[in-house]
Design a protein that fits this description.
Length: 342
C-alpha cells in the first residue's frame, strides 16, 4: 500500500487523497523520490489529513529540499543559457524541465529536473552551440557530434554548471524521428523571468510529452502526472487536433501508451474518442497492459532489467523493422565502445 499511495496522491489532485494514512509511509516517500515528485508530495500531503511519523516527515522534507536544490541549479543554468542565446538572436523552445514545471506545478521546484532541454531550428544549431560553449560547457567531440547530428535528436554540452541538451529534432526513438520544423512553426512566444522563450502549442506539447514518456517506457510517474496537469491547464484543448498531431508523427502508438496510462493511473482526463483514435493493435494493447501495470511502473522494473527493456521496446514499437535496425546499430556501437575502452 505504501508505494501505491503515491498514485492515490496523484490521482486525487487537486483534491486531497482520501482514506487512512498508508501503513508503510516510508515506501510512499521512497516512491515519491524515485519518481521525481518528493517536493510535490510534500506539498500535497500538507493539504491532506495524513499525519506522517516524524522520521518519515524528516526524510520527505530532506528529499524535497535536495530535489529543490538540484532544480535551482538547473534553473540558474537555464537562465544563463537564455541570456547567451538571446545575445546571438536565438529564442529556443523550452522542452520539459523548469519551463514546464513553472506553468503546471504549484511551485516549479516541486518537480525534479536534471538538465536543460532547448529546441532550436537546424539552421541555429551552430550559433547556439558556440554561445553555450561560452558558458564554459564542454561540447561533444567532432566524431560524437557528427554521429549525434545524423542519428540522435540533440547535442550535449556539459560542465561544472550542469548539462544542456540542444535539440535540433524533437525526439528520436524506436528507430524513427520526430522532426522539429512543424513544431517550431506553431510554437508560441512567452516570457520567463524577463527573458523571451517559446513553448510548444498545447496540443503539440501534449503529444510530445506523451511520446517522450513512452520512449522511456513510462519509467517516471512524473511524466504521466505532467500529462494530467497539462490537460487540466488547458480545458479548451482541441482533442481532434491532438489526434491529428499524433497521427502525423511516426509514433501514434506511443502517444496512446502514455495517455492511456495517465488516465488509468493518475486520473488524466483523456477522452475515450482520442484513445480510440490512437489505439495500437489489440495485441500491443494487451502487452502494454502487462508492461505498464501500477506495480511495475512504481518499481521502475523495466529500467532495472535491460533484457526486459529491449523486449518491451521491440514489442511495443510502432514499426518493428526500424526498431530492429536501431537496436542492432546500438548493440554494434556499444560493442565498439567497449573495445575502445580496453
Amino acid at each position: 500500500m505504501g508505494a501505491r499511495a503515491l498514485l492515490e496522491v496523484l490521482r486525487a489532485w487537486p483534491e486531497a487523497p482520501e482514506g487512512p494514512v498508508p501503513s508503510d509511509a516510508e515506501a510512499l516517500v521512497h516512491a515519491a523520490a524515485r519518481h521525481g515528485l518528493a517536493g510535490f508530495v510534500q506539498h500535497a500531503l500538507g493539504r491532506s489529513g495524513w499525519t506522517l511519523d516524524e522520521a518519515v516527515r524528516t526524510r520527505l522534507r530532506r528529499e524535497a529540499l535536495g530535489q529543490a536544490a538540484r532544480g535551482m541549479r538547473v534553473k540558474a543554468l537555464l537562465l544563463r543559457g537564455l541570456d547567451v542565446l538571446a545575445a546571438v538572436g536565438v529564442v529556443p523552445v523550452l522542452l520539459k524541465g523548469h519551463g514546464l514545471a513553472v506553468r503546471l506545478y504549484p511551485e516549479p521546484l516541486q518537480r525534479a529536473t536534471s538538465d536543460v532541454d532547448l529546441l532550436v531550428a537546424d539552421a541555429e544549431v551552430d550559433v547556439a552551440s558556440r554561445a553555450l560553449e561560452g558558458l564554459g560547457l564542454r561540447p561533444l567531440n567532432a566524431r560524437e557530434a557528427a554521429h549525434a547530428r545524423e542519428h540522435e535528436h540533440h547535442l550535449t554540452f556539459s560542465g561544472a554548471a550542469g548539462l544542456v541538451e540542444l535539440h535540433f529534432r524533437a525526439l528520436v526513438g524506436y528507430g524513427q524521428a520526430l522532426e522539429a520544423q512543424a513544431l517550431l512553426a506553431r510554437a508560441e512566444e512567452a516570457e520567463l523571468e524577463g527573458r523571451r522563450v517559446r513553448y510548444l502549442r498545447a496540443e503539440d506539447e501534449l503529444v510530445y510529452l506523451a511520446i517522450h514518456a513512452s520512449n522511456h517506457l513510462l519509467q517516471r510517474l512524473s511524466w504521466l502526472f505532467d500529462l494530467k496537469l497539462l490537460v487540466r491547464a488547458h480545458p479548451g484543448l482541441d482533442w481532434g487536433r491532438v489526434v491529428e498531431v499524433a497521427r502525423g508523427t511516426a509514433f501514434p502508438h506511443l502517444a496512446w501508451y502514455a495517455l492511456e496510462a495517465a488516465r488509468r493511473l493518475v486520473g488524466a482526463r483523456v477522452p475515450d474518442e482520442a484513445l480510440a483514435a490512437l489505439a495500437p493493435p489489440a495485441w500491443q494493447r494487451l502487452l502494454a497492459a502487462r508492461f505498464f501495470t501500477a506495480e511495475r511502473l512504481l518499481e521502475t522494473e523495466l529500467m532495472n532489467h535491460k533484457p526486459a527493456w529491449v523486449a518491451a521496446k521491440l514489442l511495443l514499437a510502432p514499426r518493428l523493422l526500424p526498431m530492429a535496425r536501431y537496436t542492432a546499430r546500438r548493440l554494434r556501437e556499444d560493442g565498439l565502445s567497449a573495445l575502445r575502452s580496453r
